[in-house]
Design a protein that fits this description.
The structure is a homodimer of 262-residue chains. With 262 residues, chain A is of the alpha/beta class. The first copy, chain A, contains ten helices and seven strands. A seven-stranded parallel sheet of chain A has the order 3-2-1-4-5-6-7, with helices on both faces. Chains A, B: It comes from Candidatus Rhodobacter oscarellae.
């Protein structure tokens, strides 16, 4: 229990900023071998760095080709904020994430842990079940039609919210997909966190972001979230499967209580 | 991050069997000072042992009087199985648990963590919101009337289910009760676990327990659950508040997917 992730080989996407950078840093500090993936390398927080654009299918294929075998953990952390255009956002946050995961599974060691960084923004997924079901056949080729049919444009940050809602459902759906190999998938949902993309959220969400700020005692920090990801990567969580840990200072709990008049 | 709970003073109720015993054992192993509470002492897994009947208000008061100050963690683990009479079950699992918690808060150190051991049996709490709201005024004195008014007798294990449903709601409601002192409350919900009370569950739940067994690849063990409790006691979880970690091999996720046709 002491050495949570010591000696584990872990891939972290979006390792150059925010939650991904802090996660890579503490995993390295704990003796893990971190393979970082991002557009640019900002820190010496990884053992190996792989430059890759996770919105592009061919790039993802090429990335997985050069990754080593025996990967004990995959942190799907890379994600675009709601200010980005809906098509590129859905490519990175949803299509690319799923594609990378399926491609990487043969290179995962038995007992490996996959951790998806979702968001409090995904909390309302039950209201989007129809669109989420429809997204099961979503590909790079029918993306524009999907955005228009299911109204998941960038307006009001809808594409971002949808990407996180669908990610949470996909996490649950994969609770037992690789159970015979002991590979589990879980998610972590941060609330508002003080990272380089926080201004993008405030720009998109406006009043809602202000309300959140007034409710919370302080904004979250990458230091609040990274240890939760490390925990899910560790052997302490072999019985947690298809589950979403909400690390948001109590914001999700607050929403749930309000919704039920509690 | 390495020494999750080293040097922390932690009270564990129900420390003599099952999940509580394993929790006390690994906390002690990690260098915590464990104060165990139970009816009888079975193991040398604690620093100090306090004999107490947690169904009794006066006994709880007497217990808290002799506990030291500076407590960093409280694990509300003691609980009766569904085969017990409804009144004694609700006293231990709900009334006694709440009473102990409120009494012990003044002896908690700033930044302390309270962990309630709930259950997958509490998963359906949204359907019981009215009874749960009514239970806010439940005391030792109006228990019989409450059981009859809200139909929470032991039939079909209803009193057990209700005790866990109410515990999950109470956990959420207390997300920010002691926020000014940095004291957080969270829950852990195991699914079916191979402990001395597993036969009681099978006796009460019948077909449902069999269905669970067929769905799971194996029953849970105390070794699956105790590390999750240790995690919630550690400083790694200061941003997790009013939250319920479901450590059940994916059973809750399975129920949620089924309920939404996913």
């Amino acid at each position: 229990m002491r050495d949570l992730v010591k000696g584990k080989r872990i891939v972290v996407t979006g390792s150059s900023s925010g939650i991904g950078a802090e996660t890579a840093r503490i995993l390295t500090e704990q003796g893990a071998e971190v393979l970082g993936v991002d557009l640019t390398k900002n820190f010496d927080n990884v053992e190996e760095f792989y430059r890759a654009d996770l919105s592009d299918r061919a790039t993802i294929d090429a990335l997985v080709d050069v990754l080593p075998d025996g990967i004990d953990g995959l942190v799907n952390n890379a994600g675009l904020p709601p200010t980005k255009p809906a098509d590129i956002l859905l490519k990175v946050n949803l299509l690319g994430l799923k594609h990378l995961t399926y491609k990487i599974v043969p290179k995962l060691a038995d007992g490996a842990s996959i951790v998806n960084v979702a968001s409090l923004a995904g909390h309302g997924w039950p209201k989007a079940v129809d669109a989420i079901k429809a997204s099961e056949t979503l590909t790079w080729d029918n993306l524009d039609a999907f955005i228009s049919r299911w109204q998941v444009s960038s307006e009001g940050g809808r594409s971002y919210f949808f990407s996180k809602e669908a990610l949470l459902v996909w996490t649950m759906q994969n609770r037992w997909t690789w159970r015979d190999r002991g590979i589990r998938m879980n998610a972590v949902s941060p609330g508002p966190v003080d990272t380089p993309i926080l201004p993008d959220f405030i720009e998109t969400l406006g009043e809602r972001a202000k309300e959140d700020r007034d409710t919370m005692d302080r904004p979250g920090t990458p230091q609040d979230i990274a240890p939760v990801i490390a925990f899910l990567l560790s052997d302490m969580t072999q019985w947690i499967r298809g589950f979403n840990i909400q690390a948001d200072g109590g914001m999700a709990s607050n929403l749930t209580c309000k919704a039920h008049g509690l």
